[in-house]
Inverse folding.
């Protein structure tokens, strides 16, 4: 008989409940429930509506149950954000969104206290204002009374798992996104936290990906009319799940997990922490089976998504296909931005910020929708190449192709441009990589799939990839030199 498990995958703008069915050779997916994930601005603070997310989990369980029995549940989310619990185990306030502005300037302040070199050597994490350590320092500095009331902090997938089971854990892959976990010992850097005024024992001890938390609580089972179902602490970070689903046949491979964020990297057995990786600001994050995801966080489809929202706010109703057509109709390699400068992180007028960046860097000012979109598309593809060169320089390895997984693989233009920019064949798919990785980890936890290598073989067997080959590489090479001068200036 086929084995069914339920995966909840929470992205920055939406979530879904995916029922996975494994027949021994292939995994098939059925979408049981899809919902919006809408953050809320309250008195100039940007919050996640976490209680609504719990409501949607319950809806997803009910709808999935109507499609058939399932044995386990796994939850993955974005990284870095957390909820605070009091001594009773109650949530003190809604978790704050990583795009909130409370962390502005916190990187410099924290590094001034503990030292930039020391923080990177311990954690191996890319310095980004949104990282948990900077959020907690901002809280300790600006609202210390809230932190004093907190008995425990849980990262988002651990918090949602706690709501279902009452069990408090810190799963390895999600803990590794915080810039608070020692990349070598896999334990919290309590000394650094306490030096910043953050309690060193705020988070539970770190557990490996695939740990079984236990059954859904009796109260929730009764509320939803279900029998006992175990919750598995899968790789709680969505990218870690997506990398599990990269259908690689080689030990050394490059992946791009492409969605709102683009995570460009490789899977290694140990962290890579040294002068080069620190200079390049490359992060070491946890993967399944205590592997390391050596990668760059790059702002990805967020730029396209938020640009479309801005045009809609201005009364222009473009589809993504419309925006792609406008881009293709515009002159190539005319304007570039650095997608990762801080001004592109908050929501708002991305087209206006693109114009400002181009004008400030002496390129002129893109005016049309097509010029804006062409600039964004080509800049993302060029930033992929920029990251690719860094990864190769640090690992000393060559890579034969790039696995591009996730929702961004539906964007054919970005896939084509990525192949041409990097000069490397792109193997695109599966689209539902995060849900598939979540499901595969549940199946490995139950023993239905013996190991990661076999999981990847099964995923290759389940979905057909699309390949893209480089074209016009000489033109992209020439344009890349100008891109580097602009972003390195």
């Amino acid at each position: 008989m086929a084995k069914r498990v339920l995966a909840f995958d929470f992205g920055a703008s939406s979530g879904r409940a995916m029922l996975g069915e494994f027949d021994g050779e292939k995994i098939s997916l059925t979408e049981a429930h899809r919902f919006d994930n809408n953050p809320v601005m309250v008195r100039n603070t940007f919050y996640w509506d976490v209680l609504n997310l719990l409501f949607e989990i319950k809806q997803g369980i009910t709808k999935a149950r109507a499609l058939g029995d399932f044995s386990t549940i796994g939850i993955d989310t974005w990284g870095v954000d957390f909820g605070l619990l009091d001594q009773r185990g109650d949530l003190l306030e809604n978790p704050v969104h990583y795009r909130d502005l409370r962390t502005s300037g916190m990187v410099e302040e924290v590094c001034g206290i503990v030292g930039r070199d020391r923080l990177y050597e311990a954690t191996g994490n890319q310095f980004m204002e949104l990282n948990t350590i900077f959020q907690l320092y901002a809280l300790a500095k600006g609202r210390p009374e809230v932190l004093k009331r907190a008995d425990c902090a849980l990262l988002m997938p651990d918090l949602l798992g706690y709501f279902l089971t009452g069990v408090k854990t810190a799963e390895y892959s999600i803990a590794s996104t915080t810039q608070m976990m020692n990349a070598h010992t896999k334990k919290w850097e309590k000394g650094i936290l306490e030096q910043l005024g953050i309690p060193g024992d705020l988070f539970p001890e770190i557990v490996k990906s695939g740990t079984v938390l236990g059954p859904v609580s009796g109260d929730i089972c009764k509320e939803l009319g279900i029998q006992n179902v175990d919750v598995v602490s899968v790789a709680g970070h969505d990218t870690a799940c997506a990398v599990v689903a990269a259908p690689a046949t080689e030990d050394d491979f490059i992946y791009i997990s492409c969605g709102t964020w683009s995570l460009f990297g490789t899977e290694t057995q140990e962290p890579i922490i040294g002068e080069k990786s620190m200079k390049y600001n490359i992060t070491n994050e946890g993967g399944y089976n205590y592997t390391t995801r050596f990668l760059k966080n790059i702002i990805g489809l967020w730029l396209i998504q938020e640009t479309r929202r801005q045009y809609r706010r201005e009364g222009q109703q473009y589809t993504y296909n419309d925006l792609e057509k406008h881009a293709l109709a515009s002159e190539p390699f005319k304007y570039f931005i650095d997608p990762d400068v801080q001004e592109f992180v908050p929501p708002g007028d991305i087209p206006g910020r693109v114009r400002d960046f181009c004008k400030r860097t002496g390129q002129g000012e893109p005016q049309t929708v097509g010029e804006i979109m062409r600039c964004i598309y080509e800049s993302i593809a060029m930033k992929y190449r920029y990251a690719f060169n860094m990864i190769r320089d640090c690992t000393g390895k060559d890579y034969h192709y790039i696995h591009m997984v996730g929702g961004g693989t539906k964007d054919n233009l970005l896939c084509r441009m990525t192949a041409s920019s990097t000069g490397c064949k792109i193997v695109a798919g599966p689209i539902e990589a995060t849900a598939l990785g979540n499901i595969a980890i549940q199946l490995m936890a139950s023993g239905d799939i013996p190991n990661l290598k076999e999981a990847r073989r099964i995923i290759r067997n389940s979905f057909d990839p699309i390949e893209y080959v480089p074209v016009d590489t000489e033109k992209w090479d020439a344009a890349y030199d100008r891109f580097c001068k602009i972003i390195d200036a």
Residues 94 and 208 are 26 Å apart (CA to CA).
